[in-house]
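In response to the reviewer comment on reproducibility (Comment 2.3), we provide here a single inverse folding case reported in full, input and output, so that an independent group could reproduce the run without further information from us. The structure tokens appear first.
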């Protein structure tokens, strides 16, 4: 396993829609990339990481949200599609491509997501709360959307000011 280099906002790859993962791409190389992404995510202290955040312009992401007992639950989603949403949650959100920035974001409370696993098999998952927030955040990354785009105009303005401050103090890499 090896650590991958994280890409920070405003790198263009974060603002570009990823290419779908084709059937013939589900192979050992892809599985290795997924393992490397898990390791990179854990080392950086995140619960979700999308391919564009390590410079790969493709539609997939990994997520590992521990259960109440603290047990991990590593999952990989390829070609994710949000097929239904319900309810609302408002809470602080962070992103490994925005180091040090946490800001309030409104998200759906419950999400049904359809995707493929690392072998290319299709599955559907019904998630809520933090897992729903993470699935929405990471699916956005696959589509070139960052959480800045999901903030209210006021919060976005505050966030942009804070990003400038972090960049000026050299804390943005
Ligand atoms: Ni993110």
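Designed residues, in position order:
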């Amino acid at each position: 396993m090896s650590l991958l280099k994280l890409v920070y906002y405003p790198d263009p790859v974060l603002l570009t829609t990823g290419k779908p993962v084709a059937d013939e791409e589900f192979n050992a190389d892809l599985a290795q990339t997924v393992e490397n992404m898990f390791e990179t995510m854990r080392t950086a202290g995140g619960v979700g990481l999308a391919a564009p955040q390590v410079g790969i312009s493709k539609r997939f992401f990994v997520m590992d949200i521990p259960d109440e007992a603290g047990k991990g639950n590593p999952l990989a989603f390829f070609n994710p599609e949000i097929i239904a949403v319900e309810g609302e949650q408002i809470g602080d959100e962070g992103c490994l491509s925005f180091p040090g920035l946490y800001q309030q974001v409104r998200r759906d409370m419950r999400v049904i997501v359809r995707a493929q696993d690392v072998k290319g098999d299709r599955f559907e998952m019904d998630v809520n709360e933090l897992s729903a927030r993470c699935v929405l955040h990471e699916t956005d990354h696959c589509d070139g959307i960052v959480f800045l785009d999901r903030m209210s105009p006021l919060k976005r303005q505050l966030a942009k000011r804070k990003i400038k401050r972090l960049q000026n103090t050299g804390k943005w890499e």
